[in-house]
Design brief:
By secondary structure, this protein is mainly α. It has 2 domains: about 130 residues, no CATH class; about 280 residues, no CATH class. The protein is built from 17 helices and no strands. Helix 1 runs parallel beside helix 5. The radius of gyration is 28 Å and the shape is elongated.
Length: about 425
């Protein structure tokens, strides 16, 4: 194919995309326009022509595009004035203007225009479901907490100063607030999963995903739910246990990226820990009393911001203690340093040990036992967090975590 024809083919493809998205949105609007003299003015033909008009206007230049856009805007205004007495909504008119803009976008970004066109059609077609979701399914408390979470993440977090505030350089206000947001987000994800899938599946699924970010935070968040909804303590405990499954999985990934030599040594103990944690998770999930969506579950709060703040404060204290021990002991106390650091985050210990082995600073054997110590003290942190949620939650979690710890330590000793 001659090179000169490539731009022409690109333009033709853009017009085809504009035609397709105009038809897609137009078909949806055609089904809702009604019949008789009071029907909506815009249907499948109008939307298709408007999309093509946008593409043609973009192709011919800015003056033509502005003129065509003014015409479409005037037509949308006339349509609204005509129909406002029967239907005060602006959906069709806004969709008409948006279709014109998407048609114009089709020439320069056809993929983006097509994706947005599909999204617009889905939103338009989902009117009844969206209205039901906003007016019936969502509770006022859920809306309030959702806005609080968004404000915490999108307004407060960017405004906080960067940099540490302590002599050891471990406490950073922005990172601590990010932990607060994380706790609230994990708890909210569990709330959504609970409402969609039910407690037996939804909460463990949320715990498994949340564990990739922070298994300790997951245990804390699910502990909040167990406190608020005692009937779901088994499902919440399964979610907390599922977070520990991802702990060992993520440790393997981190070692694969830093030191394959250390991974080749410790993979049996990580595999043993993962297997035992998975078995404990399945056992707790089977005990869950609620296995389907419970309408009464919608009354609970998605998260407790006070509990999230308490967790961040506890983490800050652990970080300060770990930093103080490291300063006091120096590089010679690598095991104790790993144990103290594991109180806050075993993944940080994993990364550190992998990097130290890769740089030949310590031996693989020393790093292996440092990982075991960090893993053990991290279990202590998790159990402290679980105990704060009450004895029912704690009593379901500690046997599984103890079994995981025994499996890891025994496998490490046999290697």
């Amino acid at each position: 194919m001659p090179m000169e024809s490539l731009p022409t083919m690109d333009v033709l493809f853009g017009f085809i995309v504009a035609l397709g998205l105009g038809l897609l949105v137009g078909i949806e609007r055609e089904r809702r326009k009604g019949d008789g003299p009071d029907r909506s003015a815009a249907g499948v033909r109008s939307f298709t022509l408007v999309a093509l008009m946008g593409a043609l206007g973009m192709h011919l230049g800015l003056p033509v595009m502005l003129l065509a856009g003014a015409f479409v805007g005037l037509a949308a205004l006339m349509s609204y004035v005509r129909a406002s007495s029967e239907d005060p909504g602006l959906t069709t008119e806004i969709a008409l203007l948006l279709t014109y803009l998407l048609g114009a976008l089709s020439l320069s970004e056809p993929g983006l225009a097509a994706a947005l066109g599909v999204a617009v059609a889905i939103l338009l077609a989902g009117k009844s479901n969206l209205h039901r979701f906003a007016q019936i399914l969502l509770t006022p408390q859920e809306i309030h907490d959702g806005l609080l979470l968004l404000a915490s993440a999108l307004i407060v977090l960017p405004l906080l100063p960067a940099g540490t505030i302590d002599p050891w350089g471990v406490l950073e206000i922005r990172k601590l607030w990010a932990i607060v947001v994380l706790i609230m987000a994990i708890s909210a994800a569990g709330h959504v999963a609970l409402r969609i899938f039910g407690a037996r599946i939804g909460l463990p699924l949320a715990g498994f995903v949340g564990g990739f970010v922070s298994s300790a935070a997951t245990i804390a968040a699910m502990g909040q739910r167990a406190t608020r909804e005692p009937a779901r303590v088994d499902a919440a405990a399964a979610a907390g246990m599922a977070g520990s499954v991802t702990t060992t999985l993520l440790m393997s990934v981190l070692l694969a990226s830093t030191s394959l030599a250390l991974l080749r040594t410790v993979w049996p103990m990580l595999l043993a820990g993962t297997a035992v944690a998975a078995i404990a998770t399945l056992w707790l999930a089977r005990r869950a009393r609620v296995s389907s969506v419970d309408p009464e579950a919608s009354g609970g709060r998605p998260f407790d911001p006070i509990e999230a703040l308490v967790f961040a404060g506890l983490l800050a204290a652990v970080l300060l203690i770990s930093a103080g021990l490291k300063t006091w002991l120096g590089a010679h106390g690598i095991w104790i340093v790993a144990a103290s650091a594991g109180l806050a985050d075993v993944h940080a210990v994993t990364l550190s040990m992998g990097q130290l082995v890769a740089s030949a600073t310590i031996s693989v054997d020393d790093a292996r036992w440092a990982l075991v110590l960090g893993f053990a003290t991290n279990m202590v942190t998790k159990m402290v967090l679980a105990r704060r949620a009450g004895s029912a939650y704690f009593n379901r979690l500690w046997p599984g975590h103890l079994a995981v710890l025994i499996a890891v330590c025994a496998t490490a000793a046999l290697m």
